[in-house]
Amino acid sequence: MDSLQLQDFAAGWVGGAVSVVVGHPLDTIKTRLQAGQGYGNTLNCVLTVYRNESVAGFFKGMSFPLATIAVYSSVVFGVFSNTQRLLSQLRHGDPSHTPALTDVALASMVAGFISVGIGTPVDLVKIRLQMQMQPYIKANIVPGFPVYRGPIHCFRTVLQKEGIAGIYRGMGAMLLRDVPGYCLYFIPYTVFCGWITPDGCISPNPSSIWLAGGVAGAISWGTATPMDVVKSRLQADGVYLNKYKGTLDCILQSYKNDGLKVFFRGITVNAVRGFPMSSAMFLGYELSLKAMKRDQTETNP
User: Fold this and answer.
1) 262 in helix, strand or coil?
2) CB atoms within 10 A of CB 223
């Protein structure tokens, strides 16, 4: 694998780390709204979390995604970019040829499919920690209730009690969310970057990256909300009880108990959170990639 291919993975790592810090508080609110009970609306959820758990409540479960989402994003961007180059090589004989939108879509689907293998355990641990309302206090453990002391303890506990199937709980819903979701992530980004980048510019400027990345994130996360709700409910299931047999059962039970509107719970938070997270992700990716290429040019003139 040459240095150009490795640079995409490294730049994806930077973008992922930046986006976690920016987006985790809203991610916590989104998860509580989708899988929790009694929060009502977004504002009430924010106030309840702050009142009961202070600012630290918004950052519950962040250490694990911070350590792992960077790797996850590295895989997504690395696979996406290298798949694009491979398709350009196969179609045009030149890996640097500007890809058609069909190639962008295909590369997005490949990235979404591969990313689920890493993303499912990461999301499961993050959601289990976010849904654990009370901090771990040994004296107040309720018998039979799983209590997680942190991400590693959570991962080990789920693995011991639920096996590999437990770690990959919600994988089907995540595939249904991420394969089309990444198409609606990378295609809008590519299109918007093309629209707002001035003619004659080789690469988009930071403001174009920020705007295109934000719009792409809002579109992708907004449209992914129904399957995100199902995934969150499946993965949160097990903190206190197990009531869903699988993806279809979760969809049917959720619809029966809460109606169609349940699948759009958290859509506002998802879309709002998607903008700054994706702006940070693409800025981190594009700017670090540009810096690495500049350093490589200076080192090898």
Assistant:
1) helix
2) 20
pTM over 0.70: yes
**Spatial distance between the Cα atoms of 115 and 85, rounded to a whole number of angstroms:** 18
Structure tokens at 69: 């989402």
Q: Check if the beta carbon of residue 61 is closer than 8 Å to that of residue 125.
A: yes
Q: What is the pLDDT of residues 223-271, one digit of tens each?
A: 999 999 999 999 988 766 678 888 999 999 999 999 999 999 889 888 8
Of 236, 279, 250, the C-alpha closest to 33 is 236
Which residue in 182, 194, 210, 233 sits closest to 287, CA to CA? Answer: 210
Q: How far is CA 161 from CA 82, 149, 150, 153, in A?
A: 38, 15, 16, 12
Q: DSSP letters along 194-243, please? A: HHHSPTT-SS--HHHHHHHHHHHHHHHHHHHHHHHHHHHHHHHTTSS---
Tokens of 205: 């400027």
* Six-digit token string for 135: 């901090």
CA dist 175 to 114, 116, 118, Å?
Answer: 9, 6, 12
